[in-house]
Amino acid sequence: MKLLPTLSEVYNQASYPITGHAKRNVQVLKEALASYDGELDSDVYGSGAVIEPFQERMAKLLGKPAAVFFPSGTMAQQIALRIWSDGAGSKKVAYHPLCHLEIHEKDGLKELHHLEPILLADTTRPVRLADVVGMEEPVACVLLELPQREIGGQLPPYEELVEISAHCREKGIKLHLDGARLFEALPYYGVAADELCSLFDSVYISFYKGLGGIAGAVLAGEYDFTEESKVWKRRHGGDLISLYPYILSAEYYMERRMPRMAQYYHEAQELAALYNACSTITTVPQVPVSNMFHVHSALPKEVLEPILIAVIEETGFGFTHVLRDKDDGGSYYEVSIGDRYAELPKEKLRDAFRMLDERVRAAAE
């Protein structure tokens, strides 16, 4: 008996994938490296012409005195919180209950650094000023993720960020920015990266998410902070002999995609409107505040998944490669806009959404 194709399989074969930039394959690295001289010397254990000028440019971009390149954001952020914890003489740090450190890192912060997280806000909204002001226990550091990925890329108002920053400085609490998708948030806030980062004592950015590089991250802050982070980077095994494939791909794709962040943001709003016109479907947030959002359906996964598979096969438009269950019996998936969206044939896209609407409407009756 022939097995039915999975959602992932039909998405990978779709003529028009809707989300992201392109397939994550070796071509991503080949394209980046093709623009560099093959005689360019690699970095060696954190030094050299590839890594040092890049770190300086990142520090300037983020408005900080210094920056350090890391192979992963998981490593960089655990180290940042450890440094602030040691400096304050407190094991307690505060962040959102759906923070990456809390749900995706196998309790690395607790097992490796013995830090004790205080969870702020709830799982439906970002951390707000009242959450920070209302903390009942003193903490060494507050971490804010902008935008908050696990709730559809929601953002708090900029004015509240300013107030949170002022409160933390008044109370001697360090404020750390999980800026994995920092550049995607800037069009909504209407400020430059250095202005936003000036509210924070330390900043992490990723190079493989919205920017589409291979991997890697930067941790930025005051000179003493970044120098201490280098010690912890060595302790974590992150001081690899060479990181140039990550650095050069980061540089290459930053130059191409940072100018497009406003475009991705507006395209996300356009796409969300198509979803919200479909029966049983809503987006979170309803009007995206970055290039990403979540698609929620009242239909359970076992009902919606075969509908998505059929519509993808019949129209060629890849809506998503994965569908997740919701606690209320519905289902959801994440959408992140990149280079692909601008190339889609828009009238055919609208036809695909009309078909999706018809199928989910019939399933709900």
From TrEMBL:
Q: Where is the Aromatic amino acid beta-eliminating lyase/threonine aldolase domain?
A: 39-295
Keyword Lyase listed = yes
Q: Which cofactor does it need?
A: pyridoxal 5'-phosphate
**SUPFAM superfamilies under this entry?**
PLP-dependent transferases
Name the source organism.
Answer: Paenibacillus curdlanolyticus YK9
Which GO molecular function annotation, any one, does this entry have?
Answer: L-allo-threonine aldolase activity
Q: Keyword set for this entry? A: Lyase, Pyridoxal phosphate
GO BP term, pick one: L-threonine catabolic process
Q: Which family does it belong to?
A: Belongs to the threonine aldolase family.
Q: Which Gene3D superfamilies match?
A: Aspartate Aminotransferase, domain 1 (3.90.1150.10), Type I PLP-dependent aspartate aminotransferase-like (Major domain) (3.40.640.10)
Q: Which Pfam families match?
A: Beta_elim_lyase
Q: What is this protein called?
A: Aromatic amino acid beta-eliminating lyase/threonine aldolase
